[in-house]
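Ticket #433: bound-state structure for nicotinamide-adenine-dinucleotide.
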Amino acid sequence: MAEFSPRTSITGSNAGSMEINLRIGVIGVGYVGLVTATCLAELGFIVTCYDTNQEKMRDLITGERCPIFEPRLQELIQKNLENLHFTDEPAKCIGWSDIIFICVGTPSSENGSVNMAYVISACDLVNKYAKNAGKVIVMKSTVPVGTYKYLKEYIGNNSYVYNPEFLREGLAVHDFMHPDRVVVGCTDEKGANTMVGIYKNFKNVMYVDVASAEVIKYASNAMLATRIAFMNEIAQLCNNIGANVLEVSRGVGSDNRIGPSFLIPGPGYGGSCFPKDTRALCYTMKKAGIESPIIESVIRSNESHKSYMFNFVRDAITTFKDKKVAVLGLAFKADTDDTRDSASLHLIDKLALDGAKVFVHDPLASHPMVNTYAIEEALENADVVFVMTEWEMYKEYPLHKHVKQGAIVADCRNLFNRKKIESTGLKYFGMGR
Ligand code: NAD
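RESOLUTION: The complex was predicted; output attached.
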């Protein structure tokens, strides 16, 4: 039960017409902030964005390019330019707005705790330009349990709301506009009523207390990470005994009590959320004096699984030394340019350490520490191909036209048809098939 639920009088169908005039500021325009800002503009709100990254702001202010890749995002920005403003002056974003969404990064610290430096720096700005201004501060960043108490001094008499984001990169616009649920943790009625105005057209908006909202976010990501890690272990078993993990996944997921989502094995989960959020949950549990053997073993399992295919192939060829290896995919998943904690980066390091000549291709993603090549160049005369990201363009790619005769295709995403690959004279290693 929410500590502060919205007043019923404001939940009527006209509640939003008054709220639509509210002005919204968004601090931090990365994957979450830019999508949030753009979608809120699409919903009719007037939105002003601010980010400390000057290059990003320049791109957005000049309209030269969208600083991140996300399907549909660029066209939606263009469509909503009348409602969507970008500024490199925090005062304009914060001072001008009635509601301020904080969407800055919350990376992991060394010990697994959340590095709150960006959240604090955003709150410093709120403190500077809107202390006791009676605004509504909406935290969208994933923040640990207890954050509200910790931030109280910055918030002043502004209302604080925790509204965690559940979007998936690559489907972010869709997920924002059609979420399975919206979670809103409120600390007072003003915040609750404001959020009713913002989400008036959304179904399944849950009003809960802030602490519950904080736990919902971490528990959701930990559950999804657990399903992936579990299925990766099952994939290893399938490889061992000659079963097909895709059939297993279908059979298991057809049980209504289980459901089919997130039962697809891969090279090990990565990205900007699951790795850091599972670590943060462990840290929080530890601090609370609670043991967390399940989630700790999920983290360990995922770390070890990231080396699974590397070891599997090396067992077959003894060493990667002087072998040409093509790595297809650098992004942690398809339809994003995000490489944070990507399993591909882990593999590239291991290959380099073992003496391989590594040629990486990705249609979109890049990384300052990795050279990327055109796909033909990456594949030309390769001894081994690792398929790391499920990009559509790889699915029917004629690998045999480029790689060495008899080369190994290590398909960590199960993109290819084994028989087809083998019929071209290549060796096929699937992830659990
Ligand atoms: P991001 O790194 O893409 O973007 C964060 C942005 O905040 C950057 O552009 C950075 O320059 C900016 N920033 C940092 N400090 C600032 C400040 N003081 N003022 C203004 N701007 C500042 O991060 P992201 O992926 O968008 O994630 C943001 C939050 O949302 C994180 O807490 C993350 O865990 C959570 N989240 C992310 C996803 C996802 O798929 N990326 C999904 C759900 C939740």
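RESOLUTION NOTES: The first strand starts at residue 23 and ends at 27.
TICKET STATUS: resolved
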